[in-house]
Hints:
Layout: E1 2-7, H1 8-16, H2 20-31, H3 38-57, E2 64-70, E3 77-85, E4 92-100, E5 106-109, E6 112-114, E7 122-123, H4 125-139, H5 141-144, E8 150-156, E9 177-180, H6 184-194, H7 201-212, H8 222-231, H9 241-259, E10 263-268, H10 275-288, E11 293-297, H11 300-309, H12 315-318, E12 321-323, E13 335-340, H13 357-361, H14 366-372, E14 374-381, H15 395-404, E15 408-413, H16 424-433, H17 444-447, E16 456-459, H18 463-477, E17 481-485, E18 495-497, E19 500-502, E20 507-509, E21 512-514, E22 543-544, H19 546-549, E23 554-561, E24 565-568, E25 571-574, H20 589-604, E26 607-615, H21 618-627
Parallel strand pairs: 4-8, 8-9, 10-14, 10-15, 11-12, 11-13, 13-14, 16-26, 17-22, 17-23, 23-26
Antiparallel strand pairs: 1-2, 2-3, 3-4, 5-6, 6-7, 18-19, 20-21, 24-25
Amino acid sequence: xxxxxxxxxxxxxxxxxxxxxxxxxxxxxxxxxxxxxxxxxxxxxxxxxxxxxxxxxxxxxxxxxxxxxxxxxxxxxxxxxxxxxxxxxxxxxxxxxxxxxxxxxxxxxxxxxxxxxxxxxxxxxxxxxxxxxxxxxxxxxxxxxxxxxxxxxxxxxxxxxxxxxxxxxxxxxxxxxxxxxxxxxxxxxxxxxxxxxxxxxxxxxxxxxxxxxxxxxxxxxxxxxxxxxxxxxxxxxxxxxxxxxxxxxxxxxxxxxxxxxxxxxxxxxxxxxxxxxxxxxxxxxxxxxxxxxxxxxxxxxxxxxxxxxxxxxxxxxxxxxxxxxxxxxxxxxxxxxxxxxxxxxxxxxxxxxxxxxxxxxxxxxxxxxxxxxxxxxxxxxxxxxxxxxxxxxxxxxxxxxxxxxxxxxxxxxxxxxxxxxxxxxxxxxxxxxxxxxxxxxxxxxxxxxxxxxxxxxxxxxxxxxxxxxxxxxxxxxxxxxxxxxxxxxxxxxxxxxxxxxxxxxxxxxxxxxxxxxxxxxxxxxxxxxxxxxxxxxxxxxxxxxxxxxxxxxxxxxxxxxxxxxxxxxxxxxxxxxxxxxxxxxxxxxxxxxxxxxxxxxxxxxxxxxxxxxxxxxxxxxxxxxxxxx
Length: 629
């Protein structure tokens, strides 16, 4: 989906009249829910007339342009996609263009660029557009069959070569070439070599139509690619801040090796922003290089699932996946790198009732153990996904612990989210629905109006209808489906029957009843172990909870709001007496409310294609129906 589509010559007239950037702003306000700042509008006003004028000078006035085109399953947008025919073959050809107003920039380290006034490094523009091209080809079967139809350029139209000299060292490829103000003539010739100046207008229009109607491959589930990523080669194409985070870690690893300096890298991002993808990419790359690296989490379900799937029949790979509490007696700097995913789940200490007395007596804060065990500790977290008392993982806590032992600290912020179909609208809808955002709740139909948004949001009148919706989506559109709920019902041990053991139908709503997922270490025939509820196809028969859902993704998410979180008139109310979670109930009222809110945020953000909601409370159900319509 592009914000604006048009012929070069027509768009140039509009730009010269000072109207194109205004129309883009109007389209953005309509389609992107006011998420465009003044700086971006100014950049459109300054950059687009230059690009369009250069295209006209290249005799490419007939070429079709897609402005601010959204990449599939992603929040990322390409500044411009030029659609036309190749001068030699006549085949449809696409040029992705990234425009920068920079006049001065310095290459900080490999792939990362320093700009005055920016809080964190940014990706080299050639690397940025190269990865956009790779991602587009990877997600589009028709282009995967002929990747030479796609090209990428980064155009720094305000920059003299002297002002960005270090950036010019970047090796050009078909997916990424750099041009500056000094290279304008070369830029024009390059475009003429890719797009036919004598091409037919209809051919350019048809190329754009084809591009906009390409079928895109389904979003790739993280776990499906984990084993190949770690054992074989890179599977994920990281974009923008994701690659900045990845490269920041590699640079810190190199500094540690070269100068014995220690850097703690903190990566912050919301659900689906790519934290786990970055973590697995780092693990795979560093392990293939022969470095001592571990992947650690505080989630029994997530770590055990990664061991099972990524480490299938390979004990060496299985040994790469650890828990946060495994380092209570580890030697300092035993690892080159520790990658701590889901780091918001770091606890106060690693001790438990099974910890030996001598270890218990000298126990330290868990974050100190994790920092101490590696030359380069990496923490990936979302501070709004803390769901239990005693989970202390935050930027402030980790940074303070790192600086206390003399480590440098680098922080990278991830934007957008790639789950939920890359739907920025859904991300905002959830934040507003739960009262996390400052703006009031808004209905899905209102926030998604006019958007080319494939993500589906629905409500069900009862849990049976919710289950039917999931089954229908799975049958009609394929994919995985799971039903999860707030922890508001008892969780019984399985009962013995003549055929063995059987799960108890604990989650009862009217005449509808289903069991929770199995308890840890309590196997039941025909049901997955609790840790594998989200990844085993047999998990659909049980209701999951936040502890078995967090960290995972599935195509279709059903969410039951229990009586622990209800809507009253104009606000959410957390009801501690309705919770069956013994640990969460120990929190004070304020913390309890925050933890329950985070719980439902986690459950609502597991689906990759759609979500359906239901509440056991009548007033809350009425509210959800109005919001999900």
